[in-house]
Amino acid sequence: MEIKAEAENLLKLFERVVPVISWGEFGGGGQIYTLPVVVEMMLLQRLSEHGTQQEAVHALLGGRLDRLLPNSKRVQGGRISANTGGYARACGRITPETVEQVCDQTLAALSGQIEAEAKWGRPVLLLDGSSVRLEHTADILKAFPAGRNQHGLGHWGIMKWVCLHDVRTGIAQRPAWGPMYGPEAVSEQNLAKKVLSRAPAGSVIIGDGGFGIFAFAQEVIGSGHQALFRLSKARALSLGGKSLPAQGEFLVCWKPSAQERKKYPELADAEIKGRLIVCSAKGFRDSLYLFTTLEQEADEIVALYGERWNLELDLRTLKGTLRLEHLHGKSQAAVEKELLIAVVAYGLVRAFMATAARRAGVDPRILSFTQAYGLINAMSPKLCSPDPVLRQQTYDRLLDYISKAKLPQRKKKRSYPREVWGRGKSFPSKHHFGPLPKTKSK
C-alpha cells in the first residue's frame, strides 16, 4: 500500500489530523500557542535529544512551525519570546482528553501502515504491560501511589500501563494505564481489556502467561479476535490432564475454574474451544504451554509466539530512546499527556521505518529505531520547508537513509527468551581505586 509523501511527512501528518483550533475555544486566548502549534512542539520536544521545553521553543523560533502560526502582530513583527513560560502555560491549558483525541486520530492514520500478515490472513498484535516512575508530588502520589518493599515505602509514584504493538511494524495502539499500588491499583488484565477495543477487527492477540487466564481469553474471543497465550504449568495441567508429554498438541475445551466462576459469575457457562500446544524450547527450564484458537501448524504457532520478544524490545526503546523510564510531569494530567505524546512520537518513527522498509523490500524489524529516530530529528527542519521540492527531496532521502540503517547481524543467535536485561555499568566504589599518586613538592 503506497501512501503519498505529503501524507507521510512527519509534521504534515499533524496538519491533516489535528483540527486548527485556537486557545480561545478552550478558554485560553493565546495569540501564538494554538492547539496544532502546542501539540507539534510537544512532539518535537519528545523527539529531540534532551527533550527540554527550550528545545521546543528554539524549533518554533527557527521556523519549523511557521505554516501553523496565526497571523498575529507578534508573529509578523518577529516578537515571539524565546522564554519557555508561554509554552509551559499552553501545555498546562491543553487537557488530557484533547491530547487523547489527537493521539487516537494520529494513531488511526498510522494504522494504515498495519497490514494483515500474509501467513495468518489478519493483523498480529503483541500485548504486554510495563511500569514507569513518576515524580514525588502530592498530586502524583494521590493518583499513582509509591510501592512498598522490605525497606519501607518507596519515593516515586508508579504508573502501570498496558499496550498493543503490531508484530511487524511495531506501531502501537493507545495504551491504558492506572496505579500499580494503593487501594485503587489495577491489574494488567483489566487494563488489557480496555486496549482490546482499539485493535483492528479480527486480530491475533499474543500474550504471555500473565494474560493466559480464562476471563481474559474469553474477552479476546468475545471481541472477535484470535488468541495465542502462554499458560502456566498448573493451568495447562488442569486444562489438558494431570500429566502432559514434553511435546504434542491437544484439542481442548477451556472452562472457568471454580474460583473463576465465583469471581466472574457471568462466565459460569462460558467455554472456549482451542488447542493446547506443549513443546520444549531453548531458553526455557520447563516445557512451553501455549493455548490458541488458530488453526495453523503447531511449529508455526510456536514460532509466532517467539515474535512476542519484539514487544520487549519496543518497551525498552520507549523507556530508553524516548525517555519513558521516568516521567517528569508534576501532576496527573501532565504525566498522562507525556505518555500519550511519547506513544504518538514512537508511532511516527515506526511509520517512517515501515514505509522505508516497504520501499526497500525488507522487514521493518531489521531496521534500527535509534538511527531512524535520529535521522528524523535531524531532517525535520527541511521536512517543514515551505519549498515543496525540498520537502519531497528530503522525504525521499530520509527514507533511503532509514532503509540502510540496519541492525547488526549477530553471528550467534540469542536464546529465547532473555529474562532480564543486562544492567549498565555503575560507577566503581572507592575501594576499587588504588592510592592516589604522590606529587612532588616544588
TrEMBL record:
Name the Gene Ontology biological process terms. DNA transposition
According to the record, the signal peptide region is none
Cited Pfam families: DDE_Tnp_1
Compositionally biased spans, kind Basic residues:
428-442
InterPro entries in the cross-refs: RNaseH-like_sf, Transpos_IS4, Transposase_11
The record places domain Transposase IS4-like at 120-346
Disordered: annotated span: 407-442
UniProt protein name: IS4 family transposase
Q: What phylogenetic lineage does the species belong to?
A: Bacteria, Pseudomonadati, Acidobacteriota, Terriglobia, Terriglobales
